[in-house]
Amino acid sequence: MAIIDIFTHVMPKPFLDRLADLVPGHAALTAFPRLITLWDMDARLRLMDQFDGYQQVLSLANPPLELIAPPARSPDLARFVNDQMAELCGRHPDRFPAFVASLPMNNVEAALAEIDRAVGDLGARGVQVFTNVAGEPLSALKFRPIFRRMAQHDLPVWVHPMRGPQFADYASEQASENEIWFMFGWPYETTACMTRLIYAGLLDELPSLKIITHHMGGMIPYFSGKIGLGFRQIFFGAPDRNPVAEECGLKRPPADYFHMLYADTALNGEAAPTRCGHAFFGTAHCLFATDAPFDAEQGRGLIAKTIRAVEALEISAAERAQILAGNARAEGTPMQTRSIKVPLRDGTMSAYLAVPDRTPAGAVIAIMEIWGVNDTMRHHAHEFTEVGFVCLVPDLFWRQEPGVELSDGNPDHVRKAFDLYYDFDYDLGVRDMTDTWDFLKQMPEANGKVGAVGYCLGGKLCYLMCCRTDIDCAVAYYGTYIEHRIREAPNLHRPFMLHMALRDRWVQAEVNELLERRLSPNPLVTIHKYPGADHAFARKGGRTYSKPEADRALGLTVEFFRQHL
Predict the structure, then answer these.
(1) What SS3 state is found at 422?
(2) I need a surface site. Which of 30, 84, 432, 545 has the fewest CB within 10 A?
């Protein structure tokens, strides 16, 4: 069983040795030497040997660099420690497949340069930041370039809570007592940080940004009901109107943004909170992590108990594997992306191609909606490439307007999209997808098996391909206008999955009933229903996006592709 622990802490010995000069008298100088597996790699590897298939993504332990060195010195310190981390991964690539870079957050320009260096030269698969920067909130605009740069790299931001005993429990006191700052202060710190980032509009500006919250999102899953009901909303709002969210200009209900976050399983191995966190974030946004080696057993207890907690989740084996390792591979696996030309029998079509680092692999044609090959479709391509598939997004409108990229939030774009859609020739579209299928089968990165997944317009093409071609399998989202070609259902002879939104404004209930009645008797057809979902529930950032349904559909689609490709 493969296990990738995405939030484990390390203190490279050369860095630990430098701490005495940098912060003499710091508590870490007396505590960390006692935690041998934190800095002694031989001891750490012996610990890891006790767990089959277990790997670790390395991140630097506290304290943050900005609390160790001033802005003029912290950039050199970041380079030093990131070089050490890269060296550890290089020496033990089978045990430490990736590391997370540390940043000099008190020097933003230097932090941006270090992101590019650590990612481009050292192979870092993300960065670690803390919930506050020496007391300043991460939501401050001065730190926004950090998040923009990570979105450009399409890599995650690991967020670790930072709070010490100087955060008093009561206003009349000077310090926190009974380690409340640690036990409950850290979960609060994470929750406050994420809330401030959300209300600052970060995820409206960067909807594809990946933020991994430590300790299963802090308090978020356990108080999710509080997210949906603000204090002022009680008196001056409505069930669907939050005055504070409106004043901040949020484009969606606040809860939607919290569902966009990722969370790890570092909960000291407790099963009940793990279940609660998983119920909120969903399989696709949960990653295995233990916080090792920070326990009284040099990390052994955290690892063993957290594995048991994930094993106790009432989910399929495929979902469990996704949490234990699949999602980590998604976040930590480099992929190659490029624009290519696909030769067709009557021309050449542009396409966006994403290739995983491990090939040959099964291939997926991701067939667009009516908005062109836009950020949404590139995001879908990455979703499939991150779990190991070659993915190609063809430019369906190449005959009408090549290279068009549209948004459902722009009225002019909406009009143009529907004009292109109503002029689109489905028969030529199936022929183009058949040529694309042939092209992918021949690619050296592919294993010869090809499936398709389509959204709206693309979903109908997937249905027609299962009726007219020998594609290995296909998945349709929403079933839009399949009823117009329902007479071809007797010819459906390839494995076909349909995600059916039961509140789809473009597919009436009578049509869904017709599709189920005519398609479900075929043993090659699988239909999944989403009772509360509207059309385009999987379009991340769209007006009707619904994360729980989108995550469920993605998990089922990936499992289907793994079965057939």
Answers:
(1) helix
(2) 30
Q: Examine the fold and report which residue of 281, 302, 331 is the final residue of a domain before the chain moves on.
A: 331
Token look-up 């932090």 returns 111
Residues 353 and 322 in one domain: no
**Is 17 strand, coil or helix?**
helix
What is the strand order of the sheet 473-477 is part of?
Answer: 335-344, 347-356, 390-394, 361-367, 446-455, 473-477, 496-501, 525-530
Query: Is 285 in the active site?
Result: no
Residue 130 and residue 284: Cα distance in Å, rounded?
A: 24
- The DSSP code sequence of 141-184 is GGGHHHHHHHHHHT--EEEE----TTS-SSTT-SS--TTHHHHT
Assess whether the previous peptide bond of 360 is cis (omega < 30° from 0): yes
> What residue has token string 């030529």?
428
**405 confidence band (pLDDT: 50, 70, 90):** confident
pLDDT digits (tens, 9 = 90+) for 154-173: 899 999 999 999 999 999 99
Q: Are residues 281 and 134 part of one domain?
A: yes
Q: What is the 3-state secondary structure (H, E, C) of 87-101?
A: HHHHHCCCCCCEECE
What whole-number distance in Å separates Cα of residue 349 and Cα of residue 403? 10
Distance CA 167, CA 180 (A): 9
Catalytic residue, candidates 432, 472, 504, 551: 504
Q: Give me the mean pLDDT over the 142-157 stretch.
A: 94
The C-alpha atoms of residue 461 and residue 488 are separated, in whole angstroms, by 12
CA atoms within 13 A on the CB side of 134: 13
Tell me the C-alpha distance between 49 and 299, whole Å: 12
Phi, psi of 238 (to 5 degrees): -150, 170
Per the residue annotation, which of 160, 215, 535, 551 is the catalytic one? Answer: 535
- For the chain, the domain total comes to 2
User: Global pTM?
Assistant: 0.66
Output the CA–CA distances (angstroms, integers) from residue 520 to 453, 456, 490, 492, 549, in the order listed: 19, 20, 11, 11, 21
Distance CA 174, CA 155 (A): 39
Task: State which amino acid sits at residue 55.
Answer: Q
pLDDT at 552 > cutoff 70: yes
Residues 339, 282 share a domain:
no
Separation of alpha carbons 243 and 436, rounded Å: 49
Q: How far apart are CA 555 and CA 261, in angstroms?
A: 17
Dihedral sign, Cα of residue 146, residue 149, residue 151, residue 157? negative
Q: How large is the C-alpha radius of gyration of the chain?
A: 25
Claim to verify: residue 293 and residue 404 sit in the same structural domain:
no
Active site (annotated) includes residue 278 = no
| pLDDT, tens only, 212-227 | 999 999 999 999 999 9
Q: Which of 313, 331, 349 is the last residue of a domain?
A: 331
User: Which two structure tokens, joined as six digits, stand for 314?
Assistant: 């009432």
Quick one: tokens of 446?
Answer: 């592919």
User: How many angstroms separate the CA atoms of 241 and 387, rounded?
Assistant: 38
- CATH of residue 314's domain is 3.20.20.140
Q: Cis omega before residue 63 (within 30°)? A: yes
